[in-house]
Amino acid sequence: MRVSLVRISMLLGLVVAPLAAQTVNPNCTNTAIVGAGLEGGNACQQAIDIYQYATQEYATLLSGGNMEIGSADALGGFPKFRVALHITGMNLVVPAPRASGIPSGPAVSTTMTTQGTDFATVAADGALGLFGGIDLGIAKFGALDAFVSLNIVPGATAAGYTVTPKSKFYLGYGARVGVMQETKVLPGVGFSYFVRNMPSSTVIATDVFQNAIYVTDLKIDTKAWSATVGKHFGIVSLVVGAGQTTFNSTSGVSWAISTPTVSQGTISGLSATSTQTQYFGDFGVKLGGVVDLVLEVGEVSGSQLQTFNTFDPASTASRSFASFAVTFGK
Q: What's the whole-number mean pLDDT along residues 151-165?
């Protein structure tokens, strides 16, 4: 059932900087926002913490891994191409509000109970060789590929917690420079840059009393770079890579608390920015011809987003992911 939320226009455009640990967000002690008795202070802070926590996890899925899965260098010029169908998954850790509750009253730091839920994205990727590079005798240098990716993002559901994207599809795009093309002796080396932006989503958390927190119009834009090194050994290929992702997220939060006291409020125009470091490895097996199977595992770490309430794992903890792909071409 929809509830009427208090609109506070002075908060439009408010920026939420990365929070210092154990510090209440000023909005959640503002009586004009959370009530004269700070009835909505706790829900306000939990809403902001859930926004920060969700941003860090979803940014990992958006940007983690090799841009051209299973490949380290560029394709080697037009009209060479590569197509990959792959799924990337991780175990999301999300709040369990039905266990920890969303009590009214002033913000008090607590350990928010969490629960695990599997989450995955499915993608169809395409890379096209644009330039074959310059042959300097020992290898070719400076090849260039263009890259595009069509991604499918399903919703996620756990007890008292849902994530619903407005659109299940989004595009990613980028380019790879073949710093050095692989030879019989030398490995391939590449540098990639890519952009992936999550469609607007809504996060809803409710406890057993139907007290509710809403993270609305959550939008995450990521820009990432990675360096890769790889080599084929007969039918087997190995790639290792590392890089960084900078993500920017925007959202609004609101809450509707009815027990033990009533509080309703909203904050619009929140934003957060952070940079994460990623590491990944690909193991590929050629089935014959132009078809490969690729398994990728990786880890993303280094988020600067911190929370007032405590989560396990913490908002700054490393996240692991895995991908499986079937690739064609080249």
A: 86
